[in-house]
Amino acid sequence: MANIELVNYIKAPISTVYQTLTTREGLAQIWTKRLNVKPQVGFINEFDFNEPELTKMKILELEENKKIVWECIESDKEWVGTTISFELSERNNKVAVLLTHADWRAITEYYKWCNYNWAMFLQRLGNYCEHSSINQ
Questions:
Q1: Structure confidence at residue 92 (pLDDT)
Q2: Contacts for 3 with CB less than 8 Å, ≥ 6 apart
Q3: What integer pLDDT is reported at residue 52 of this predicted model?
Q4: pLDDT score recorded for residue 133
Q5: Is CATH 3.30.530.20 correct for 2-135?
Q6: Per-domain residue ranges for the chain?
Q7: Model pTM?
């Protein structure tokens, strides 16, 4: 099994980063505007990327300002059964966001494309958290 593991350092309060990753308002700014999310363990977040299928992520774990874990239960076949986690910690007046997309069955072209897109996701997360009005 393969994992995608990326880190970004964000100059914003850890609560801002956590809220952005767990709320409709935040995720709509950095991922897709067509979504149904709720910060509740067991809830199935739905993301519409204008693909044939919705991407559905079951929330497995929420530890406020520390950790978020999703399990992909519906999406592209390569995503189904994988987990996405965000681990947050404060270091040197910045929030370290460790994103892990785990349990890929193979390193495919799609895996490599997703690796790139997760990096872009973390960049949008940082830009939004550092420059949005919720950080003021």
A1: 87
A2: 100, 101, 102, 103, 104
A3: 82
A4: 58
A5: yes
A6: 2-135
A7: 0.93
